[in-house]
Amino acid sequence: MISFFQLSSHQQLCHKDEYLALMQFKDSFVIERQASTCPKVNLWKSQGVDCCSWEGIWCDQNTSHVIGLDLSRSCLFGFINSSSNLFHLGHLQYLNLALNDFNFSKIPSAVGNLSRLTYLNLSSSFFFGQIPHEISKLSNLAKLDLSFNLDYSNQGLLELKELDLNNLALNLTKLEWLDLSFVRINSPTPKDLANMSSLTNLHFGQCGLLGKFPTNIFQLPKLQVLDLDNNWELRGSFPELDSHKQLSVLDVRNTTFSGELPISIGMLSSLEHFDVSSCSFSGLVPPSMGNLTKLQVLILANNSFKGEKVPLFPNLTQLIQIDLSLNQFTFNEVPSPLASLTHLMRISLYGNQITGHFPSWITNLINLRYLSLGLNMLNGSLPSLISRLKNLERFYVSYNNLSGIVEFDTFLELKSLKVLGLAFNNFSLVIKTPTNRTIPKFKVLGLSSYNLREFPNFLRNQSELNLLGLASNNIQGQIPSWILNLSASLWILDLSHNNFTSFEESCFVFSSSRLLYLDLSFNFLKGSLPIPPLSILFYLVSGNMFSGEIPSQFCNMTSLQVLDLSHNNLSGMMLQCFGNLSSMLVLNLEGNNLHGSIPETWETANKLKAIKMGQNNLQGRLPRSLGNCKMLEFLDLGRNKIKDTFPSWLGALSELRILILHSNKFYGTISMKVPETDFLFPKLRIIDLSNNGFVGTLPIDFFARWNAITDLDGKNATYLDAYNHHFMVNLIIIPYQFPYSMTITNKGEKMEYAKILEVFSAMDLSSNKFEGEILEIVGNLKGLQLLNLSNNILVGPIPTTLGFLANLEALDLSQNKLTGRIPTQLTRLNFLEVFNVSHNHLIGPIPRGQQFDTFQNSSFDGNLGLCEMPISRKCNYYNPEVLPPPSSTFEGNEDFGLLVEFSRKLVLLGYACGFLIGVVIGNIVFTRKREWFMKTFRIR
Q1: 675 — alpha (psi -120 to 50), left (phi > 0) or beta?
Q2: I need a labelling partner for 720 at 20 to 30 A (CA). Which of 504, 543, 795, 925 fits?
Q3: What is the pLDDT of residues 650-702, one digit of tens each?
């Protein structure tokens, strides 16, 4: 602890010049509140002329010079600069101006003149701008706190250049406490901090630190608190920590720290607070953490920790909070040792793979205020004694397999309850709430998936609701107008997947709302689109029957991130402003009746990751400004009337993974020359150009440079999405995803992919006018799972290199003019489920074995030269055009060609010399050993 001074009564009055300086300093500010709330400076006059006796002033007992000034929380408002009388107090050792309002003043450079300062606290006082380098001259400082100077949107106001941060580390060698939280540093952590051997507290929260955190800082001998939270680009890992007996707080949450927790972490015997949430840690939690007997807060949330048990709990008797949410734990029960930790106030095991019954011992933790077990696989019923948890404020068990009858009135006995999440289980919910009963004012209420048929009546008086979830019920009729009365407090409203048909009010406008998330999708709503507030982030109305034009008010919604208007009856033209909404991530207008051209106004600053405009009547050319969407991953313009050449310029979009242009009026050859970039669709995995008017040969330069189609490991594959985050509402995590979806021809049928695995790869060039041969280079696309080249004018043989496409599941080459045999190499394709070469000019026997034994006759229709199973036509082996393919015995043999040539000569000899001789010799060729042939007929 930093200890300054406690002074006894002084012997003489304070110095007049210091008295005047203090009064002039006070008079330069407005005191914002009454004397009762800001007693320090308001009482100075009434406390006499001796400033050493004033509130917040310390004087040296020998010299009577003012050496300490604590004006924290003094309601000071106004500007301060280097001419302030404050800096005439040259003997100051202690200066605390925290928690005032200096109205975005810069920290005066004259602070460097107070060379005797050992304590300087300017936190939470609305200071702005660059921190003066003169502060690094205060070589006697033991504590420096410049934290939490924030604007009204909680953004940091102060900046510190990299050079000045290095100077601080070099010059302030006596520092014990350094707090730069929310100071915008935006540079690497200086290694010289490790030389500040007196440091006990180091706070760098949300500073924009970059690069790798120096591990030798962990070796500071007196370090008690290390806080690095919310530096998202800060990398690092924990070294061995066995020499840090004094460390009590270790917080690296929301960084990119990674690796496994070292076993030596169990040596931090003074550790009380440990938070590594939202990092990239993995592996098992070391059992040695069970030795941290002083631990009160343990937060491991949102990492990749795993294990079937965490053998820590029995010894952690001081634990108040434990959060293991959003990891990969596979417990077969909620850990029962938690039952003995009677001090527990918060438990969060949300988002793991925990099975077993809901634990009945939970009801014995009478201090519990927060319980989140959602998004697991728990079963059984809730204990009947849940009402014993009188202090419970948040109860969240949504997204499990819990069952049984739930009496809603049980939760009304918990008078402190603010958050109740019961959604998406198998409960039978009984709501009998009498009108005269006092009902808690909920903040979060999740009642989705309960087969409710009407709005619960008690909701109309829930004026403090932040989240209301009634999705996936069976509520019918109109959306009541009193919902608008709740919107003043609502952040999230989810009424999706019900049977609503209309709004009680014809013009449904959330004008005074704070609403961030509105989901009305998959109902039967008609009429005009409801107008959301300007605060809206997510607006989801897919799968209704809304009609009319898209309201122009959407152009004013600058915070909008996801706009999903898909599968309605909307008409008119697209709003030109959609390309200007810089916050938008997802724009989904699919399945409407929009017409006209796509706007040209796609700005370079946009953040769009997904654009879906398929199944409309859009016309004209593709706007070249789409190339400004540098973060675009998914573009679907299928089933429109767009007329243009192939947009090779989209190849410069380095994040594009899915490109769907099918069923339009694209024309011309496919040219892959992109003059202004060195890369070409570097991440593209799915391309659908089917049902257009492309001509020419297949694009060899595209196949040659399509590097994204590699053989990816699908064991831990995830689904592609534009948004996969979790809302935090009243400390409850609410999951939300916007997965990519598409319709593509696969395995002979149009298939709707509601989700797309990141390893899935497909190419559909069908129903165009491509000609020439199928390129051998296609065999290099080893990760390809779907290849459709049907309904073109392709000629020549099927390349044997297609046998290298080991992941191929569907291959459609039908309706072309292909010739030759079906390569036997295709029998190597063990995952091939659909194979179609119908209506070509193929000949010879159909290969046998593996997947080929499962294909139907229709796969080979319209090829009069094909024979053998599965079709009924037998091969005529006397016709040299239908000789069987070589067996694997001869594959790769250098003399095999000689044998085939000899076989043909024997067959021809049989025709010349008579039927019997020809048959006999031909039979010998196919039944005897090769060596016998060579010896008998003296063939070399």
Answers
A1: alpha
A2: 543
A3: 999 999 999 999 999 999 999 766 554 555 888 899 999 999 999 999 988 78
